[in-house]
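Ticket #4471: structure export looks truncated?
Reporter: QA, pipeline team
Priority: medium

Steps to reproduce: submit the single chain below to the structure queue and open the exported record.
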Amino acid sequence: MTRHELPGRRLLLKGALAAGAAAGTLSLAPGAAAREAAAPGAAAASAPVTNPLVRNRADPHVTRHRDGHYYFTATAPEYDRIVLRRSRTLRGLATAEEAVVWRRHAGGDMAAHIWAPELHRVDGRWYLYFAAAPAHDVWRIRMWVLENPHRDPFKGTWTEKGRIATAWDTFSLDATTFTHRGARYLAWAQKEPGVDHNSAVFLSRMANPWTLTGPQVRLTTPEYDWECVGFKVNEGAAFLQRNGRVFMTYSASATDAHYCLGLLTADADRDLLDPRSWTKSPRPVFTSSDATGQYGPGHNSFTVAEDGRTDVLVYHARPYRDIVGDPLDDPNRHTRVQRLAWRPDGTPDFGVPVPDGPVSLGQ
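Actual output as written to the record:
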């Protein structure tokens, strides 16, 4: 999501809820841990999926848990609730029953702009990270955490653990958590005081799943032209550990057809909290495609196919370029998936967003 896209917008297209209902975590994006978590029989070939996988769901987050299920959450276009789905197959997420596990408050600090939820399993408990804003100031967006001790996130009680406190009390969102070499980290997007941008991506270690500890460092800020179209935005970080490196994708520019993915890369043995450990790709790695009819691909997550080996890119995009009015009022950012390829040098090859229709994920 991007800040300041026509402030004052409070209502959304009324048909989006019905459309979404009809259509139906990796704490770190997949790696060795994900493959270990694969369900019995995971070596079987993955069944093809059909894009869009889930309609009217933006900022998708998919994780494959040790219980053999894929868990899905995403932003609903009404920005008023947190939803979950699950299925033993990726294709099954399209028709899986959707449960509302939390709704916005009627007033107070969590009453508007419920954005970009992520579901993570940490130390035997489930956590949902999301953004929310007060009813009286809908752009005063901050990060919040829910906790559920039940082994089944569709059961038990989701408790509000509170707001994630950062170094500055400024616009912040898109929290994601992962572990590396035994340490847990949180990455998020935030407006840095005194800097000419809407948001940059920051990283910090965590004392517990809702508390930061130690330094909070900026990994990337909008600097290239393709990161500054409409708005100067870096947001929506996602992490993938492969081939002795840590890769971090992020989304850039406004949430229209200019929205795209950038990439940072660090050697796995480097200090992730040292910005000098990271190399930023000078060009976007995943962009709109006139050839395939997909526009504004971004805010991704990573998972693994049913074969337990194939990396899968999960993202949202629209099937058209032109948008009438505020892009955030347009509900048609649909969840899509496709295989993530790898180059001989061990770096990811995102390719282009594939056209709507059947998609093969297996090797």
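Status: closed, not a bug. The export was complete when the record was re-opened. Leaving a note from the reviewer for reference: The longest strand covers residues 112-122.
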